[in-house]
Amino acid sequence: MRAPADPPARRGTAGRRTRxxxxxxxxxxxxxxxxxxxxxxxxxxxxVGLGDLAPAAALLGLGVGCSAVAGLCVRRVRVPSHPSPxxxxxxxxxxxxMMILISTAAYLLTGATGSLPDAIFExxxxxxxxxxxxxxxxxSLPAAVLFWRALTQWLGGFAALALLAGAFPLYVPxxxxxxxxAGLPDRASAPPFGTQLRRIAVVxxxxxxxxxxxxxxxxxxxxxxxxxxxxxxxxxxxxxHPGGLEYFDSTAIESVATVFMALAGVSVVTLWWAVxxxxxxxxxxxxxxxxxxxxxxxxxxxxxxxxxxxxPAALRRAAVTVTAVSSSTGFExxxxxGWSWGAQAVLVALIATGGMAGTAGGGFQMRRAxxxxxxxxxxxxxEIHPHTVHVVKIGRRSVAExxxxxxxxxxxxxxxxxxxxxxxxxxxxxxLWGGASASISALATMGPAPGAxxxxxxxxxxxxxxxxxxxxxxxxxxxxxxxxxxxxxxRRLLSAERANGPRMHx
Length: 506
Hints:
mainly alpha
């Protein structure tokens, strides 16, 4: 009896294998480049802290090893010319995982902490640009470690902008809504990835340098000036001293921080227009005007609600606090957990909203908030006047129905994540208001939250907040694309196993 012939190969199998190989290559390439960048950062941190020889030597050794090995391997990896969205997002997750792994090793080798969970959580908070530090006694840490902590947030902010630039040509509707002339470009007008990356580097580096110089002029030392500039521009919020900006007790330093935190909440594309000297174009950005209006109204509201606590000083404190929470920069103001419920509610709403789209910060973002408000208004008008045709607009441009559908999906995901975070933190022992504000703050990559004591986090609370930080940093849609790819791959594997089963048995 003749053995049955093998079934013909399914159409598209080779194509799927090619795409899978391309995705793996891109993820490996991104991980290797992340190792190179982190290695160079570790070397720089070691050189900065040469006064403490042991931790500096540990960072230098780890940095040279990572950059040398990864630099030799990265040349052998082929990068696909037209990667799929899933490949880009898988590469981003791989790069973030590699950076967290290297940073964890750095904290353990330098003796900054002897706890592996603490080192992992600190690394996640750093690269997710969230001020949820668990390292005790910051002032006793070596200068090399303090510089590296700040650098992790600066690198994390740049990586977030690079991910946004890389995803523009392929998946922009899922990330942002169409904007106006000084906002984010749409899919058709988005420049090549290399061009966007160079522009981001110019803007990010220029603003960081100006911030460091301004801090130095305001009275900070060299280490503090660079460290706080890194954590300000990246909207991270790590500090070298306990108490945040209150440690310096300086109006000049708080004023510098307020200005640059506000700039950190502005779209990098909008800042690019400013770098090019196109100042007249900036005011045409409807989102920028809305962002500045929210800052002004928020400062006035918080100052009025806290006026009885500090008198005229309340205006200065409100300016720092509102700018920090609106841009999701995690500098924690002193005493804000003791403010009135009204002031705390305003701050939590500002944390959830965040800054403009296209920044290193998190939150729902101003463009989505504007579109959501316009969409809700349209639905209300439609209910009252069913035959009325009402178009949702941002500035002078109308928004198509597809981005609005994606917006509704993002709203559901955002609300679901917050509720899940509140439930998890409540199970871990946190009260309801503290859990709600902490969940929103971690998801918005802010960190500190009014009404929540995050000074001594337990194991369950750390796990929940770590998940929320990753969701806020990598966003929902990239993770959903990866989850969909994993489910699809598993189904194909199971289908292949079922198809091969009878043939192998015979």
